[in-house]
Each structure stands twice: as C-alpha cells, then as structure tokens.
Amino acid sequence: MVTASACEPHRAFIEAQLRLRRNAMAIYQDLVDHHGFAGAYNSVKRFALKLRHREPEQFDRLAFLPGEEMQVDYGEGALTRVPGTDRYRKPRLFVATLRYSRRSFRCVVWRSSQQTWARLHEQAWRHFGGSCRYVVLDNLKEGVLKPDLYEPELNPVYAAALKHYGVVADPARVRDPNRKGTVEHAIGHTQATALKGRRFETLEEQNTFLEHWEAKWAASRIHGSERRQVRAMFEEEKPHLQPLPLMGMQYFTEAQRTVCDDSCVRVDHSSYAARPAPIGSKVLVRLFEHRIEIRDLPTQALLRSHPRAERPGTVVLPADERVFNPSRETRHILGQAKAIGVDAERLCELLFAIEGRVGQRKLWGIVSLAERYPRRLVNSACATALADGIYSYRHVKTATEKLVAEALAAIDQADAVPAQGELALTQEHALIRGGDDYAELFAHGAAQNDTSTIANISAIASTNVNTPTQPTDMEFKA
To answer: 225: burial class by Cβ within 10 Å (0-12, 13-18, 19+)?
Structure first.
C-alpha cells in the first residue's frame, strides 16, 4: 500500500514555486510559515524532485550531401619511441572524416606547423581520391590566425592550399566542439579501439597500422545512426568529390621586405625588382622553392614574380628599370671614396654610371676596405682595377689583399737583413774567452768584495767604541 505524501495537499503551490525556479528549502519554509505545514524538509525535497521537470537538451542533427563536408582535428596517438632515444612519447594524431560516409584518414606526426597542417589535408584528399566543398576545423593557429564568427583570418599557407583544391574553410565557433562532432567521435573511436594499450617503435609503423585498421575494421563497420556500412556509403560519396588538380600545392614561406632606393628588395643576399611598389614601402614576399612573388602588403595583390636566384649576389632587374640618378646615399658613398683617394673616387663613379643605384652594394664594399687596410693600398688597388678594366668589388679586394701581403713580406725581409755598417753578432771567436773563464773571474771578484766588506765593518765597530759620541745635526735640531 502506497502512502500519500504529506505534501500532496500543497501540490499546486509547490508546482507554482518550482516554475519560479525556487529550491526545496525555500518552498519548505513558505509551507511552514504560510500553510501550517507540519512535515519534514526531506518530504518536501522528495516531492519537489518528482515534480521537477527537466527539459532535455536539444541537438539538431545535421544532414549533408555526398562530398559536401569534411571535418578535421588533432588528437593524441599511441606511445611511440622518440628517434635516437629509449623514451616513448605520444605524437599528434590527425584525423579527417567525411561527414556523409564517415570514412576517415588518420596520420600521426611529431610536430605541427603551417605547412604540416596543410600537407595533412592534401594527403587526406589524395587518400579519398577527391576533395570536399567545405572543411570544418578547430580554431588552432595552424589553420586560423584570428577567430571570428563572420570573417575568420586564415593562415596564408593554409588558405592557399584550400584555394588550390577548391575548398572553403568553415571554422567552428570557439568552445563549440559539437559543430565537428563527427571527427571528435572518430578521434575517440581511434584512441579507444585501435591505439589503446599499444606501443610503436616508429611513426611509420603506427601510420601503417592505422591504414590497415581503417581499411579492415573501421570502413567495414556498420554505422550506429545510419545503420549502414561505412565503406558502402563512401562508394556512394566518392563520385561526388571534387577532382584533384594535376599538380600538388606549392608551399611557401612569407616575409616582409622594404623596397630599397634602387627599386629592389633583398632576399637571401640577392636583389629582385619590386616595381610598381614605391621606394621605401613595405611589400610581402612569398618564397617558393624555385620562384619568389612580390605582393602588395595590404591587399596581397601580385606585383612581380621572378625565378629564384641560385647564386647569392644576383641582381634580377631589367636594364630599363635601373635608377641612375644619385640619391643621398650615393653622395655619401662617393664622399667616402673621395677620402680614400682619386682612383677610388673615379672607380666608384664609373661603377655607379654603369650599374646605377643597384650597384651601391659594390661601392659600399670598396669603401669599407679602408676600414681594414691602409687607404693608400686600397687606392692603389682601385688604380689596378681601372688599368685592368675590371670594375668589380672582388677584384679590388683581391688586389688590396695582394698589396698588403707584399708590404708585410717586405717588412719581414727588412727585419731579417742587418743594416749597412752594422756588424752581425758573433758567438765564437779566437779572442772570445770561454764561459768558464768568465765564471771563475766573477767568483773571485765576489770573494774579494766579501773580505773587504768584513774588514770595513770591523774598523767601524772599533772606532765607535773608542770615540765619544758626538751629537748629530739632527740631535741639535731636535
């Protein structure tokens, strides 16, 4: 027999208070004060717990078309031996999952970077045989530089990779993992089923195992909510994936450079034409493996593209773009050359007339030689370069070093040859006695000095005893 609760007569009041989100203690106190309730607090607590109705948290289940979306994220892989050590560490586990079929690509890496993040996407698309239209990712720095709900700022390398494969990024909201719940579940499934309790000696061994596990077990499983095999759904989705481009992504690094007064930018000790960028402005330089791109910094519009120079010191500048009017820097260099000598000034003026402002680096090299070597020798080396018709900093430097070496050799030779009228020292001769004779003579003289010193001391002592003491001048003064 079920006994009715003591709170049953007050059901309407308790329900009204619960709708106001009041707790059981507050309801109990009001029942005692205003309704003459004689029961205990626990009775109210149990009754309120039965009446309290919790609205279930609502989740909208999203449906996607085949080839429409892919979700990506990082997790932790299995313990793997660190190369060259006996220590084991967990690498980063990259998982990319197609939203329609739930087919996944898994790969472990030791470190992540901008290029690594983009390359993993590229490997995933080539594993699937095509790219999707959207990719949902977390707001990690490798992909998103500045999270924003409406205009997120993507990493330049990652953005270029997405553009190359015709994919649009859709970063999830901050602290909203449910937007990419498919890949979150795939990471947990991989860690709990495939990798838990395992150890690997190399990353390659773990990646080989993940590929085998995906093909044999993960792809053949029956998906829980779809009630269909993952491999069968992927076969339906594969024709809807976007075709891959013939060439892979060409990766690059970015750097900012200032346009010098010769209208060039310096990259790896070489000069590249930057017009129409104005002198003194900053530009964005993209360094590819075999070429460089110069872009406008605010808009990133392409200004110039050049093949990448193989030798340092190369100048990639058409002749019609060279600037020949002297700048303030040019006048300063020529003033320093004039202080070295006439030939140095003439050579620098001739170099500037031939190469323009882009040749100012050679002028700086010539005038800087005077900081290490005598100016007279640097000026002579410039005269040699003018006579040889070779207008080069390296030629002047070689000639200067040769002149310095000849001058040092002449000084060494002069120190080795005795001066005219000066006799060379001779160690052996018939008139020169041996060393033993001089040693005996010095010992005899020392003995005589000791005997005369003792006699003098005795004479002084006897004189002091027999002669009364006379006051000295110092005693009188005292």
So the answer is: exposed
SS3 127: helix
State in Å, rounded, how far the first CA of the chain is from the last one. 136
**Nearest-CA neighbor of 230 among 222, 240, 238?**
222
Kindly report, residue by residue over 265-287, the tens digit of the pLDDT: 999 999 999 999 999 999 999 99
Helix then strand then coil, % of the chain, to nearest 5: 45, 15, 35
In three-state secondary structure terms, 292 is strand
β pairing state of 79-81 and 199-200:
parallel
411: confidence class by pLDDT, cuts 50, 70, 90: confident
pTM to 2 decimal places: 0.67
> 176-229: per-residue pLDDT in tens?
777 888 999 999 999 999 999 999 999 999 999 999 999 999 999 999 888 999
The pLDDT tens digits of the residues spanning 37-74 come to 999 999 999 999 988 866 666 666 778 899 999 999 99
The first and second tokens of residue 437, run together, are 């004779």
Judging by beta carbons within 10 Å of its beta carbon (0-12, 13-18, 19+), is residue 27 exposed, middle or buried? buried
Parallel, antiparallel or unpaired: strands 264-267 and 199-200: unpaired
CA-based angle 102:107:113, to the nearest 5? Answer: 115
| The residue type at 313 | G
Residues 74 and 205 sit within 8 Å (Cβ to Cβ): no
235 φ, ψ (degrees, to nearest 5): -65, -30
What does the DSSP 8-state code read for residue 239?
A: G
3-state secondary structure of 39: coil
In this structure, what token pair is assigned to residue 86?
């006996």
Asked if omega into 156 is within 30° of 0 (cis), the reply is no
Q: What is the pLDDT of residues 114-144, one digit of tens each?
A: 999 999 999 999 999 999 999 999 989 999 9
- Residues ≥6 apart with Cβ < 8 Å to 460: none
